[in-house]
Amino acid sequence: NAKATFGADADLQIFHDGSQSVIKDNGTGQLLISGENTIALTNASATENYARFIKDGAVELFHNNSKKIETTSSGVTVTGNIAVSGTVDGVDIATLATESFATAIAVALG
Fold it and tell me: Which residues contact 41 (CB under 8 A, 6 or more apart)?
C-alpha cells in the first residue's frame, strides 16, 4: 500500500492500511480543513450526510442521513428524543423522573 507523506518528519500522512483509509496528522499545530462555504462529511457517493458545517451558519449532525442536531443563531435544535443522565443546570435529572410533573417543572424553572 502506498503512503503519501508531507513535512520534514512525515508530519502528515495519507494512506490505506488494507482495512481503512487514513489521514494522520503527527505534526505540531492543528489539522485544518478549510472550505469557503460548506464543509460536508458524507459517504463515498455523497448521497448521505454525516455532518455539515455551513459558513456563517449552522453545524448539522445526522444519523442515517436524518438531521438530528443543528446549531442556530439562538441556540441548538434537537430532533428526536434526548437521553440525559446526571444534572442539567444543577438539577438532578433522575430526581425529576420520580417527582410529579408540576413539581418537576417548578424545580426546573427555579
Answer: 49, 50, 51, 52
What distance in Å separates the CA atoms of residue 49 and residue 67, rounded to the nearest whole number? 9
CA distance 51 to 70: 10
Positive or negative, the CA dihedral 30, 36, 38, 43 is: negative
Number of Cβ within a 10 Å radius of residue 72: 10
Alpha-carbon span 55 to 34, nearest angstrom = 11
CA distance 101 to 110: 14
Residues 6+ apart with CB under 8 A from 100: none
**How many Cβ atoms from other residues are within 10 Å of residue 46's Cβ?**
8
What type of residue sits at position 21? S
Q: Which tens digit of pLDDT belongs to each residue from 15-69? A: 998 889 999 999 888 999 999 999 999 999 999 999 999 999 999 999 999 999 9
Query: What's CA 77's distance to the chain center, in Å?
Result: 13
